[in-house]
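Ribosomal-protein-alanine N-acetyltransferase, pasting as requested.
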Amino acid sequence: MEGQTGAITMAQFDTAHIRPMTISDIDNVMIVEHSAFDVPWSKKAFENELVNNHFASYFVAEFGEKIIGYCGVWVIVDEAHITNLAVLSGYRGKKVGETLLRHVMLYAQAKGSRTISLEVRVGNDIAKGLYRKLGFRSGGIRKNYYSNNGEDALVMWVRL
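Structure tokens follow.
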């Protein structure tokens, strides 16, 4: 993929792949994180998740050698929780997020999870559409969940 520029097309996406995130990925994951969120996680938060949280697993989507997205999940006994899902701007709308989420759902199921939950901003219609497409249903509201603007979070879950 040397010399590859610009966003991927659907045909090109077949060459992208999902793999476990490593500590050495964090600097590139931070680029995705800052591209996706107004209040991004810190580098230290990712380091802590990868090193100290034995419930956590994180995966990256790569196109060539470029990290274009990531997804995190906590698997605790028979339940899983999506911590975050982000795709680099310019690569959105190309099923990168869907591919990551499907991968994480299969991973959680293989680890014994029966359900997966997540929170999403009530105003994030694109994300809610993806989650509904993959079978997630509304489970409640967390009032004033997001610290930067007090927006509510919609809790969603799916049985595996």
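Note for the archive: Residues 1-6 have pLDDT under 50 and may be disordered.
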